[in-house]
């Protein structure tokens, strides 16, 4: 019997992207704010697959890059599935407000904080993207790296990790344009409102946040630092959400409140037959 052909690295990442499409279509159909990040994640994942297909940049170990993409996506899928399970069991609709305390502990804390912040149609499109990106990069990524490190030598892959940062960071401007066309033609207005906080959704921000994720991964692997690292990656998403919505500086806090009153939380949803 002939052996099944080995899936090339680009094909592995394509499979990840194909699975994200399923989540995106469900969220779009339900007008669920989680669709925004699913779309961003899909576009970035496709960019990585294309880079692997082209061989530009030239990764030292393309298979490792693909496996990291798959391992990282597994964290996202697991959190999304647990959320969906709870939503179905509780009969909660996408337009209902949910608090973090409402959600079960089976869902990682950062994702509970994100869903609480964007539930009930109270969020801006840019918040949907920013808050979820924070959870995925600051929590999911070091968690995935630690899990991979149990079976693969991670230390020798720093150069490829940096090349991944280059690919993803350089794709962000195009992804922002696509996001605006799909969900918010007024994204420029939101950029003004979130001028202090949307750096995460930028070339520099992707590189910086993924660099911090690698640092926190190394802390997780250190017996003397792991407990504090765990606390940090669990709580950093909520701290970011609070800083965006209620900054410590009273002048900025007032400006944000006024801005939210002036700029409505408007978005459009793609037609059911729109290609993701």
- Residue-averaged pLDDT, rounded? 88
Q: Give the total of domains.
A: 1
Shape: globular
Biggest sheet descriptor? none
Class from secondary-structure proportions? mainly alpha
Low-pLDDT stretches are none
As a whole number of angstroms, the C-alpha radius of gyration is 19 Å
- First-residue to last-residue Cα separation: 38 Å
Helix content: 55-70%
Along the chain, the helix and strand elements come as HHHHHHHHHH
Fraction of residues in β-strands: under 5%
The helix tally amounts to 10
Number of strand segments: 0
Secondary-structure map:
Blueprint: H1 9-30, H2 34-54, H3 62-90, H4 109-118, H5 125-149, H6 158-183, H7 187-193, H8 203-220, H9 226-245, H10 250-262
Plain-language structure description:
- The chain has 276 residues and is mainly alpha-helical.
- The chain has one domain (9-262).
- The protein has helices spanning 9-30, 34-54, 62-90, 109-118, 125-149, 158-183, 187-193, 203-220, 226-245, 250-262.
